[in-house]
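pasting for the record
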Amino acid sequence: MTGVLQDKIAIVTGASSGIGRAIASRFAEEGAYVVLADVRSDPLEGGLPTEDLISAAGGACVRRDADVAVWSDVDNLISETVATHGRLDVMVNNAAISDGLRLTEADEASWDRVMSVNLKGVFFGCKRAVQQMLTQPVHPEGEARGRIVNISSQHGMISSPNEFAYGVSKAGVAYMTRQIASDYAADRIVCNAVAPGKIVTGAPTNGTEEDWKTYAIPRTPWPRLGKPSDIASAAAFLASDRATYITGENLMVDGGWSAS
């Protein structure tokens, strides 16, 4: 059986670790050719590099070095993808960093660093993807020229303890998603976001494991915390032609946290 992303050309930023790694792997399982964009190849949580993981499972991918905070890197990433494959069907803007700082602890350098990746990087990814997608024909099944999936966060919707710049940046991603969806709907470009709740990735965190479990578990109605695969499932749906008449949404995948 073919997957929901069969023969789609997709770029996933921040694909070496955590949520990006899970999204890239799921896209490949669903039949996409995945371009893995990151500044590193080794997963923060350990294990095989994402490209080896996908290849071992029979998927198709290629890895590209790209810093999303640098316009020329993003431009080259998408230009090279299109030169090889003729189009870009899906752009996933996932790359993000955090600094673990409250407002009074943050300085200009830490603020700029978080914003350069989390907000400017998404701006660059969306802009260059839209530029490309505007040149492409409308796909008859999905009624779209292309689809953008941004990874925001529940902490762009609610307070983000000890992550001031991170929370502000993710709120900006949610707004950017709505604006792009509205501005380019008539051009048949779809733009949605996935907002993860507390996701256990196995990567190092700002603070101790017990601290974030004490914070997150009582606030999550579902009887477990999230897994990267939960976000990958949502992203695969929004990237697929099954997600019809849906644009500008910020899909909360948080085990009911935001509902309680």
